[in-house]
Amino acid sequence: MLTITSIKNGIVIDHIHAGLGIRMFYQLGLDKADYSVALIMNAASTHMGRKDIIKIENNVDFDVTMLALIDPNVTVNVIEDEHIVRKVKPELPERVEDIIKCKNPRCITSVEKYIPQVFTLVNRELGQYRCQYCDEIYTVGKD
């Protein structure tokens, strides 16, 4: 059995659906980090079956709403002296720019690379966003 110890000060991103941790890892730029980072994949979970966890031994500043775009069920725990001092449950933002990419090949953003990719939230419960230019629907965690 693999054992990952606790961190003294930093951030733990927990409750990531199995397989999505690597996507968050790269989106946060943790592959270029000069501090300790642990990506735990397919860890056993009583509530989720399997989950991913990211442990960051550093207090990095990042937009937690971006994490909700990858997995809306994620929890961010801030750790100080090996204790959780704050839990953050990110919510889906109303508007997203240059994070989601439109998959419609006829969308203006597919042809004109200088135009920003802009999506607006249309259904919070389903995690659905609509492209500002072509009305293509993007579903968080599925697309």
TrEMBL record:
GO terms for cellular component: aspartate carbamoyltransferase complex. The keyword Metal-binding applies. Residues 2-89 form the Aspartate carbamoyltransferase regulatory subunit N-terminal domain. The keyword Transferase applies. Gene3D superfamilies: Aspartate carbamoyltransferase regulatory subunit, C-terminal domain (2.30.30.20), Aspartate carbamoyltransferase regulatory subunit, N-terminal domain (3.30.70.140). GO terms for biological process: 'de novo' pyrimidine nucleobase biosynthetic process; pyrimidine nucleotide biosynthetic process. It holds the Pfam family PyrI. Keywords: Metal-binding, Pyrimidine biosynthesis, Transferase, Zinc. GO terms for molecular function: metal ion binding; transferase activity. Residues 95-139 form the Aspartate carbamoyltransferase regulatory subunit C-terminal domain. NCBIfam families: PRK00893.1-3. This is Aspartate carbamoyltransferase regulatory subunit. It comes from Candidatus Cryosericum terrychapinii.
